[in-house]
Amino acid sequence: MTDPMTDTDVAIVGAGAAGLAAAKTLGELGVPFVVLEASHRIGGRAYTEAVGPGQPFDLGCHWMHSASLNPFVAVADAHGFDYDKSGFNRRMRIDGAWAGAAAEAARDAFLKRNFAAIARAAETGPDRATAEVTERENRWTPVFDYFFSVWTSLDVDRVSIVDLETYIDTDENWPVKQGFGTLVARHAAGVPVTLNARVIAIDWSGKALRLTTQKGEHRAKKIIVTVSTDILSGGHIGFDPALPDWKQEAAAALPLGNHNRICLIYDRNVFGDPPPPAATVLDDGAEPMSFSIRPFGYDYVVGMTGGRFADWLERAGIEASVDLAKEMARARRDRSLGRSCQGEPEKGVRRRHRQARGRPQRHRLARRSLGARCLFRRPARPDGPTPALGRAARRASVLRRRGDLARVLLDRPRRPPDRHRDRTAGSAGVGICPKPYLTGAVSPA
Q1: Residue 34 has pLDDT above 90, yes or no
Q2: DSSP-derived secondary structure for 232-301
Q3: Domains and CATH numbers, the chain
Q4: What percentage of the chain has pLDDT greater than the value 90?
């Protein structure tokens, strides 16, 4: 049985970080609103589960990226959450032995040289995929490509150099001890959300906008759509009239990437204190994999994959992912790894890890990604003009060179772009227009 039609000023579609931020902002302004969420929970891609007593594990976004600019750091402090400021450990285990200082220096020089090449190419143009401007024949190329797939959730041949350069990385990546999903949920405590209310259709043909959900219909003056680009481009919500072609094309040009975190759960502390250092395992002929060992003292190990390899593992199933992680862990020659595993380890999948601003995780067409991002953020009106993708890309490029990154990325003057694809969760780009319209505001993951 569905509920009768209800009226409100603003309807928010989606209770991820963006939708919840929009709701909190509207609540502070005293604007009546309703939040409609398809799932049984809030948080979207911010999702934490307990894999053991007192052992939370993030199945979604995990790091507060660019922490000095990330608004969730202040939220974590306000709620008494703990986080680790040490950042990523880049130690390496190569063919069963720890990499020496000379090898790590050579790797760092390679990374620095190729990041400089990306910056030069992005400045001079035209936009290209990262793979086209970086070294492809070097012993450190697989490591570079692996790091990129984990950082961006896509492989180097699908990441735009211009879009990558618009992301200002402070190299501050702080995981949350209690879980990023737990933090987002705590921050949104008290926000009224209608759960299990998937929006099936939106009629925006008249002055009053109508939303059809699994739990009934709603009428609103404005609608803020915060679902992912995959939901929009996949036609999971019917729009009447249909979204403009330019909006649909922009959404399709910004697909979600894939970053998988594989969790091996142990029944006790088999590592000792302090635990072995985190490291990236690189064996000849095998895909690299980074491991975090007993983070925050929890009795589990986490392996990370991204891009096409993460896609392949996901299709292969949880058992294949766990078996690979165990095999790679054993390659470290640490006897404790790979044994005493409790039950079936979980696999944490982060999709679109960071869809709005953040690292360019979603680019299928590298040359169009930045322009598509700019177009996607523009409000759509039934009688509105059709912007040109090329013009949006050129405008973004000009503004980027002027250093006006806020206008390039979000057109929101309130704060610099949130840097945190774990980015990680951010605020909604809320806009109130005198005419009925739909705006896409998607949360970074």
Answers
A1: yes
A2: HHTT-SEEESPPPHHHHHHHHTS---EEEEEEEEBSS--S-SSPPPPEEEE-TTS--EEEEESGGG-SEE
A3: 3-47+180-255+355-440 (3.50.50.60), 50-58+86-169+256-349 (3.90.660.10)
A4: 44
